[in-house]
Design a protein that fits this description.
Its EC number is 3.4.11.9. By secondary structure, the protein is an alpha+beta fold. The chain contains 19 helices and 28 strands. The chain has 3 domains: 142 residues, Creatinase/prolidase N-terminal domain (Creatine Amidinohydrolase, Chain A, domain 1); 142 residues, 3-Layer(aba) Sandwich (Creatine Amidinohydrolase, Chain A, domain 1); 289 residues, Creatine Amidinohydrolase, CATH 3.90.230. Helix 16 runs antiparallel to helix 17. The radius of gyration is 25 Å and the shape is globular. The termini are far apart.
């Protein structure tokens, strides 16, 4: 198994052994997570792809890997075109590809613990048109041929104190119970890891960069609950925190428990609960309500304690990032600096706060052409020097007990070209337009996406990713249901208390990338004479935007005023945390345009 070609051959041999003509390999786990533990990194092991979203299909003579626009460049660098076809979503889909490539009567395998029921139905329908069938497997064939597959994490659960959560776990369970009662349901299955962490005010360390634990939960209409977690993860402190109303079981018992609801009405989320959960509930005689996880919206709408915690985390994180930007301004002109060194130094500035638990994702540290790879992950073989005359893009964040941060800055190293300045400023104008937006209550994120793209579109330019994603409270850096995007979501009405990113960008393949990202809080706005309840954004991230990269003459008077006001706020929040040369640098970086 020393090469990816060997691994592909081994999988094909295993498929032939179990009489399957193909198999689908998604990048997810049994909880439909975006970020997964090492044990679930099947796609990376099979193909070499290191992105955070993608899927693959393996047939006897063909294989294809499916990624979205964020990974168009990355997949070509990491996955061998001699063995894999590159497919773009949403332009195509696995179901559509299989319809065109699977043979008449083919048996295509899938793991029902890694797909939703909707996906199974769609793929089955497509295959039926060519007389092929989708076949569930009891054991994932990738696991059978992965000789050194890591075991799931055995890290202990920890308690997320109410001083950070703002509400007790008992209150949250009661809210779910009330939700169930209003729908005449007996129980709700929670399978999303962040939903379980939020509901029970617990955290874990089973997924890199995301403080969640591998668990399932079932909450009942009497506000009691059953939680399914590996026994070695529990200790007396967590058990006492959960209390007598929460019964703790081995995670291995969860599948069997789903068969015990004969005659009962059980809610499960069709987007977040895998097909196997629905199948076992139905086989056990339960009446299943396909409803959105009742935790999703309350988790997304931050309470006052979570908002206060996030502001504190952002202030701390902004100071760490500002120290890094000052260090970069001194170090980069001297030469010899590279992407890995810069990423490590930025992490150290965050660790110097004494409050960093983990990064919120692997730092994207892209110099020159690597900055054009939207979700670039630096490693030894791709590590580039940060050279004069280039743009350096750094997208990073921290996990703190009181909040999760995510911020991108693009820095001109030396003198930027006129084109770099022009395109940086187009991105900035879009960022400002979204930051200043006022919109009626009920507006969806997808309706706002064009605000950030309009100036790029006017020049025939664009970017192949969403403009904004939700962010958790010491949880996932990508949190739904809210998004600012015209594809792949964006249809959730924005509500006060939601936190999102504002991150338009521009990427010139082979040359440079630009992204400006702050986190924003949806807040109520008092608009004189308004006939509708109005909302807007409060910017939460505090760190300088590179003045040297701005073509000031392309900004309107109002846009310049926004930049100056933003930098004045950065000074107010960050300056008291700095001193010496770093403080002097910050004053210059935040000087009025």
């Amino acid at each position: 198994m020393s090469t990816y070609e060997d691994r592909l051959k081994a999988l094909r041999a295993e498929l032939a052994r179990v009489t399957l003509d193909g198999f689908v390999v998604p990048l997810t786990d049994e909880h439909m997570s975006e970020y997964v533990g090492a044990y679930a990194q099947r796609l990376a092991w099979l193909t070499g792809f290191q992105g955070s979203a993608g899927s693959a299909v393996v047939l006897p003579q063909e294989a294809a890997i499916f990624v979205d626009g964020r990974y168009t460049l990355q997949v070509r660098e990491q996955v061998d075109a001699a063995h894999w076809q590159y497919e773009s979503v949403p332009q195509t889909s696995i179901a559509a590809w299989l319809k065109d490539h699977a043979g008449q009567g083919a048996r295509i395998g899938y793991d029902p613990w890694l797909h939703t029921s909707a996906w199974v139905a769609q793929a089955s329908e497509a295959l039926a048109e060519i007389g092929a069938t989708l076949v569930p497997v009891d054991t994932n064939p990738v696991d059978r041929v992965w000789p050194d597959r890591p075991a799931p994490s055995a890290a202990r659960l920890t308690v997320h104190d109410d001083i950070y959560a703002g509400r007790s776990a008992a209150e949250k369970r009661q809210d779910i119970a009330d939700w169930l009662s209003s729908r005449h349901a007996d129980a709700a299955v929670l399978s999303a890891l962040d939903s379980i962490a939020w509901t029970f005010n617990i955290r874990g360390a089973d997924v890199d960069r995301t403080p969640v634990a591998l668990a399932y939960a079932i909450v009942h209409a009497d506000a009691t609950a059953d939680i399914y977690v590996a026994p070695e993860k529990m200790d007396d402190v967590v058990a006492q925190h959960l209390g007598n109303a929460v019964r703790v079981h081995d995670r291995a018992d969860f599948a069997g428990a789903l068969a015990t609801f004969d005659g009962k009405t059980v809610a499960a989320d069709p987007e977040r609960a895998v097909a196997a959960i629905f199948e076992r509930l139905e086989q056990g005689g339960a009446h299943v309500l396909a409803l959105r996880d009742p935790v999703v919206l309350p988790k997304a709408i931050k309470n006052p304690v979570e908002i206060a915690g996030h502001r504190a985390a952002q202030a701390r994180d902004g100071a760490a990032l500002s120290r890094f930007l000052h260090w970069l301004s001194v170090t980069a002109p001297q030469g010899g600096l590279d992407e890995m060194t810069a990423a490590d130094r930025l992490e150290q500035f965050r660790r110097d706060t004494g409050l960093l638990v983990d990064l919120s994702f692997d730092t994207i540290s892209g110099a020159g052409p690597n900055g054009a790879v939207v979700h670039y992950k630096v490693e030894e073989k791709t590590n580039r020097p940060i050279e004069s005359g280039s743009l350096y893009l750094v997208d990073s964040g921290g996990q703190y007990r009181d909040g999760t941060t995510d911020v991108t800055r693009t820095i001109a190293i030396g003198a930027p070209t006129a084109e770099m300045q022009q395109r940086f400023t187009l991105v900035l104008k879009g960022h400002i337009a979204l930051a200043r937006a006022l919109f009626p209550k009920g507006t969806r994120g997808g309706q706002l996406d064009v605000l950030a793209r309009q100036y790029l579109w006017a020049q025939g330019l664009d970017y192949a990713h969403g403009t904004g994603h939700g962010v958790g409270s010491f949880l996932s850096v990508h949190e739904g249901p809210q998004r600012i995007a015209t594809f792949g979501g964006g249809d959730e009405p924005l509500q006060a208390g939601m936190i999102l990113s504002n991150e338009p960008g521009y990427y010139k393949t082979g040359e440079y990338g630009i992204r400006i990202e702050n986190l924003v809080l949806v807040v109520e706005r008092d608009v004189p004479g308004a006939e509708r309840e109005m909302l807007g954004f409060e910017t939460l991230t505090h760190a300088p935007i590179d003045r040297n990269a701005i073509a000031i003459d392309l900004l309107t008077v109002d846009e310049r005023a926004w930049v100056d006001a933003y930098h004045a706020r950065v000074m107010e929040i960050v300056a008291p945390q700095l001193d010496g040369d770093a403080l002097a640098w910050l004053k210059a970086a935040c000087a009025p345009l």
